[in-house]
Amino acid sequence: MELNTVFENGTQIVSVAASRIDAASAIQFKDAMRAATATDATRIVLDLSRVKFVDSSGLGAIVASMKQMGDGRQLDLASLSQDVAKVFRLTRMDSIFSIYMTVNQAVLGKAG
Amino acid sequence: MPPRRVVRPREKPVRIIALTVKAQKSAVSESLQNLRTGLADGGIEEETLGRVEIALAEVLNNITEHGHAEAGIDTVSLSARISDQDIRVDIRDSGAVVPEACLDSAHLPDSSGPLHSLPEGGFGWFLIHSMVDDLRYSKKDGENQLELVFHRS
Question: How far apart are alpha carbons A100 and B4 in whole angstroms?
Answer without folding.
Answer: 66
